[in-house]
Amino acid sequence: MKIPSLNVDLQRLVTPVPIWRGSVAADDWQAAALAVRESGGRLISLWASDRACATPALPAPEGDALPPAETGALTVCAAYAVLEGLVWLELPLAAGQTTYPDLSTIFPSGVRMQRAASDLSGILAEGGHDHRPWLNHGAWPADHFPLRHDVAAQQAFPDAQVTDYPFVRVEGDGVHEIAVGPVHAGIIEPGHFRLSVVGEKVLRLEERLGYSHKGIEKRFTQLPPLQAHRLAGRVSGDSTVAFAWAYCMALESAAACDIPERASWLRALMLERERVANHLGDLGALGNDTAFAFGLAQFSRLREDWLRLSKEAFGHRLMMDGVTPGGVACDVDRARMDRLLQQSDVVEREVQALRTVYEEHAGLQDRFINTGQVSPELAARLGLTGLAGRASGQAADLRCDHPWPPYDSLQVKMATHRNGDVAARVTLRFEEVFESLRLIRTIVAGLPAGLTRSELSLPADAAVGAGWVEGWRGEIFVALELDGEASQHRILRCHCHDPSWQNWPVIEHAVIGNIVPDFPLINKSFNLSYSGHDL
Questions:
Q1: Are 203 and 229 a contacting pair, CB within 8 Å?
Q2: pLDDT tens digits, residue range 303-343?
Q3: Alpha helices in 315-421 (DSSP H)
Q4: Helices 334-360 & 293-314, crossing angle to 10 degrees?
Q5: Helix or strand holding residue 475 (H, E)
Q6: Which secondary structure element, helix H or strand E, spans residue 468, and what is its range?
Q7: 3-state class of 137 per DSSP?
Q8: CA-wise closest residue to 481 among 265, 297, 282, 221
């Protein structure tokens, strides 16, 4: 596979979804990004890796490539979604070099990823317009980079102080600021939102995240690879199945391990149940944000019943630790399968009735329609992805575009909309609930017999792997590097990416021109992850 107009040698990874990996020289870093954009591709993630230990060698990039002797340990990586699949590109930096060409002018969604890489690894996007700290709120010194290989995992900085964040000021007659968060009501995770308004109309929104940063990527390097799936499943609790599957796919890729057919079908069953659970919760919360408490009560009841049966069938309400390296942690017997089918029928009937209630409620529709609108053109420019992207005309779903087992035999029907408002995102949730219920019935009916787990043997040499899974919020990506010390089987680097990275900046645009009371509704219609973003 080749990137158009660029001669880069790519190696296909052993994964059920098409993923390639390759290396480029500094002169081709931006050229590769431009080629991806011009061919309709998207930036999935950007991160840095400090390779103190050797990883599998890649073909040397052509052109002005640095000779191996001059290449240091620091490498900047980018993952792109292209028509053929996913391309993981790397730019090795010279020894002592900490800068690389900026990508934010090509892919605006890369700004915060570059800022996070600067905070954690000490590499700087040269030519970038925004170098403010993103994840570092003053908890560690500016010259301390937690993901460097020679930095201890546990260090205390008693003199560290929370620093003032230089928000962009909006000035003019009648303009004032409203600060929301970082502490919110209830159990909502922390995030700060600075609204510049005139009267009730929002002129600008600026977000400040990173309050739930907890050092997950550093913690991965302290865990045995065969146990780290449990940490991956806790990156964002509402996407535990998706993250665990992506991590296990990456590990199985590095180990060239095939999982049993029954295991992949059970993983898909859990993933679709995770999707339904979150959509039910969101549909109720969106009703509640319009003062329609009836919707909250009904959808909360359905979600609670759904979670209780998940616990009975898979051992945990959220199905945590259900996906394990080589397969799944538990099987489901015939009696429980029948209960899963019965519950799917009941939920479908009730959600159909509730959809009619929502669509015929004039006050609710008045709050939904044309609120928080993101046009397809803006969505494409900013890289809006997942459910929110499909509600703005971005027809991308890995289960359809690059179906892996068992989705390659399930014929998933993708739901899309073009209006890009709260109403469209609500409609997408209803339609995806019905499609997931259909998939659950198909999976249960066609569940193959056999083992639920295969033995996974870690490679003796350095290895890499990648996982790419369509979670309920959007595409989850995991890049995994194992070092070459066979006696230890240590994780050199594990990068987890949540689609919230792309979608959080879009909310800043979606809220412009709306009234302040609609901000919580718009925010909830995206329902992005704080924890999955902050890591």
A1: no
A2: 999 999 999 999 999 999 999 999 999 999 999 999 999 99
A3: 334-360, 362-368, 376-382, 386-390, 398-401
A4: 170
A5: strand 475-482
A6: strand 463-470
A7: coil
A8: 221
Three-class SS of residue 178?
A: strand
Reduce the secondary structure of 255-319 to three states and give it as a string.
CCCCCCHHHHHHHHHHHHHHHHHHHHHHHHHHHHCCCCHHHHHHHHHHHHHHHHHHHHHHCCCCC
Q: Round to the nearest angstrom and report the end-to-end CA distance of the chain.
A: 32
Do residues 349 and 475 lie in contact, with contact meaning Cβ atoms separated by under 8 Å?
A: no
Report the C-alpha gap between 32 and 21 in whole angstroms.
13
- Residue 156 token pair: 């205390």
Cβ 37 vs Cβ 106: under 8 Å:
yes
What the block records as the tokens of 347 is 């939920």
Residue 192 has which token pair? 């700060």
**Alpha carbons 465 and 13: distance in angstroms, whole number:** 7
Distances in whole angstroms, Cα of residue 270 to Cα of each of 15, 26, 276, 330, 470: 20, 42, 10, 11, 13
Percent of residues in the chain assigned helix, strand, coil, to nearest 5? 40, 20, 45
Residue-wise pLDDT for 207-241, tens only, equals: 999 999 999 999 999 999 999 999 999 999 999 99
Which among 335, 338, 326 has a CA at the least distance from the CA of 264?
326
Instruction: State residue 22 phi and psi, 5-degree precision.
Output: -160, 175
* Helix intervals (H) in 403-510: 422-446, 500-510
3-state secondary structure of 103: coil
- Taking 80 as the threshold, does the pLDDT of residue 358 lie above it? yes
Which token pair is 312?
């009975």
Q: Which residues contact 201 (CB under 8 A, 6 or more apart)?
A: 513, 514, 515, 516
| Beta strand 71-82 pairing with 42-50 | antiparallel
Task: Note the Cα 491 to chain centre separation in Å.
Answer: 21
Burial of 53 (0-12, 13-18, 19+ CB in 10 A): middle
Whether this prediction's pTM lies above 0.85 is answered by: yes
**CA distance linking residue 109 with residue 213, whole number of Å:** 19
476 beta partners: 469
Strand partners, 77: 47, 90
Report strand pairing: 85-94 vs 19-23: parallel
Rg (CA), the chain: 23
3-state secondary structure of 116: helix
Q: What is the pLDDT of residues 459-498, one digit of tens each?
A: 888 999 999 999 999 999 999 999 876 556 899 999 999 9
Angle (CA) 460 461 465, round 5°: 105
Residue 523 burial (C-beta neighbours within 10 Å; 0-12, 13-18, 19+):
buried
In the structure encoding, which two tokens stand for residue 90, read together? Answer: 């790397």
CA angle, 178 then 535 then 228, to 5°: 160
Alpha-carbon distance of 274 to 316, in angstroms, equals: 12
